[in-house]
Specification:
It is built from 29 helices and 27 strands. By secondary structure, the chain is of the alpha+beta class. The strands form 4 sheets. An 8-stranded mixed beta sheet has the order 17-16-20-21-14-15-19-18. Strands 7-13-12-11-8-9-10 form a 7-stranded mixed beta sheet, with helices on both faces. A 6-stranded mixed beta sheet has the order 3-2-1-4-5-6, with helices on both faces. This is PLD-like domain-containing protein. It comes from Pseudomonas prosekii.
Length: 846
Amino acid sequence: MSEAVSILEVIKRGGHEASLITTFNATLPFYEEVLLRKLVSAGCRHNVVLMDRQQCAVAWESQATRPRLAGHAYTLLPIGVNGAFHPKICLLLGAKKASILVGSHNLTLSGLGFNREITNWIEVGGVKDGEGAAILRSLWQMLRQWINLEHGKVPAPILESALAINRFVTPLISTSMSTVITPAVLGQGAGSPSLIDQVAAFVTEPVRRIALLGAFFDSRLLLVRQLKDRWPEAQVVVGIDPETVQHPGVYDVEGVRHVDARALWSHQAGYLHAKVFYFECDHAAGDVFVSGSANPSRPAWMSGERDGNVEAVLLQSGDLAREAAEATLMSGLFDLPDLDHEAFVQIRRRNLRKESTYQEEGLPILSGLSNPLGLICITIRGAPLAITSAVLLGPNEEELERVYVIDCSDKEVAFSTTVEPTHIRSCLLEEDGCPVARAMILHPSVIETTAQSSRHYQVRSALSELGSSDADISQLIASVERVIFADQTNREIEEAVSEHRARTDSSVAGASLETLAISINDMTKGKHKPRLLKSGDLAYLIDVLMRRLNEGLEVQSIGVDHAGRTEEEQVGQEDEASEDEIDVPAEEATLSDSDIARIVAKKARALCRKMVQQLQQASRDASRQIVAPIQLIAVLALIRELRHLDKQKRWAATGLPFVEERDRRYLLAESLKYLLRSQARLLVAIDEAAGDSANETMQLRTLLVWLAWDLGDELTEHANRIWESYERLPMLQANAMFLALMPAIATDAEASAALHDSIQRTTKSTPVASMRAEKWLRRHMDYGMSWSVGTKECEEMKVGGYCRVKGLYEEPRVVSEVTQLTVGFWDFDQERKFMREHVVAVVPGQ
């Protein structure tokens, strides 16, 4: 057992050619945008997802969870069973090794990022690893049985695509042992013994105590009662989170105690979703530790073929079991006090409210195939359907065609289409205009050719050679990961912003539940924060950030294009290539460095514009005032990294920047307007939410000042009276920016170091350039330090000097205009003027 590890870190190690993931429910866009992209970029070109059929139908009903690439870039196979298809497995296969993850995590953002989960990670080191190969053999036997549950219910090519994983498994298990060993993967499904019977076969000594942990219990606690019946002498302790557990709220099972499991992991946040059983005997040799997908419920552990769940767990015995119990603190459950009566009352009330909530189930989900001739064939499962029309839908649920000439039999629906078959992702089957089922349309021929290079893949591959070290790129990733893996809810963003307070208020000591956890976004734990993405992911990061920045934007009105530009602004502009254009396999030769630079610059331009749109929306929508600044941190960090790459010999030779100056200038000006102007002040939104000065606000100040330096802005100490206004105003605006940002940076050692590193990183590697950068930094740091001690009044009011407005603007402002009657200052979007008697001239306090 090891410390927390990111599933992306496992994928990034490479050497895998195929993947198979099983899940109960899924956020499929998260899989497609994050995991699938990482799998493909790491060389894993054959990818399969098995998912509960009913949950798949529900996923299709929501834009946030429905897939766009299923059947086109990977195989999605819904599994229908009488209970629930509930295993959580990730299998990564290569020519000489395999990685197996068996645990409690679903293929969702919460499951892989925020929940408290337990997952077992097993590395199979090739055919010579007899123990690992035996586990892989056993696991594949179960997976193959589950896939074959859909035999005759989906088109044969879909089943064949899922079963093709066998060709990657077979070389690794050719010499494996067939005897039962531990660790052992156990599964419950059609035709198999119940999970409780399988586990009981490994419990060969008298059991002294049983500890179990879970989130879902059956309504009569039948599984808990079964444990007492089988091991009547054992003390049974049930660990729950009273605020989230699905439990009948009774505690009438004799010899069973309930405890609050949060006491063991009080420093951790997140929904308790782990499922663990620990059987402790008098001697460690008899102990058994079971963790995986099975909740402490009758369907998960005690069911037959009619209503049982399909589950998967990993069982460890002997010393390994006791070590696991200690490492995960499961053995500590025995020492916790019993829950009081009031806790159970609250659990009953909460679960009664949940039971009264109606959940939409979604249309029945079917599977179909397309062929190059335009024929669509959909397999019918269950009762025959009287289909009269079909609506063909594209990746974004856009209607492509409505078909009325349909051949419908008891087992299949078939029709021809005039649209390009590969554009079709799904279709609605209708009876007299009313939808009665949804069909996923899969394209096996497209999946088979996904290994071919594409224009998009060429860009990413080229960027992977840019030479950023892990230490450098990790600073970028620390900023962008919260945007990539956030689900865009204000609650979760606010939690991320205020994590620094939690870290300072509590200390982390001892082992914790995360010992076996897959931690995709470990923002709450600074000590062992994983690096999720390393070098070679810049194109990937831009694409994902652009998708995230698109979320929540209003539909543009007539006369405004996709980048938010009016017809006048579109003149002479170059748009980025669409995703479809980039993803189409290229016929031409490999892209040149200049081609790559142009493509990245177009993407960066679109990214800047969409970021500004987010800031605009945040200025109008209070619920987004925390989200937008966090996104801006990510965008600025990405631009900083691209500017560093601009200085490398290979890319400098093209003469083309990755981010053009006009786009950087536009982003800086618009960001300052929404972050600092008195009518918006988005910069303080994070601090107000955190109740203190948050780390994120300092990060943002530092990145903005870096961008100003990158654009050549600097302090102007004396405003020459003979300057024209068009010459004077930009200089005064720059002074206003440095006045607003530099004092906080200058007095924060960490922020000062970060600014120094950013400037050094993006400076040309010449002695002259380095000397100028150091001089610029010293001058502006001294300026910030002088203003950090406060202000004092002075007599002279002059353009380029400083002022405050009594009772309204106590913070110093840069004077932009002085007349006999009024004084004006720059407020980052416009000049504000006040009667001279209300304005006081000020200078730094030191």
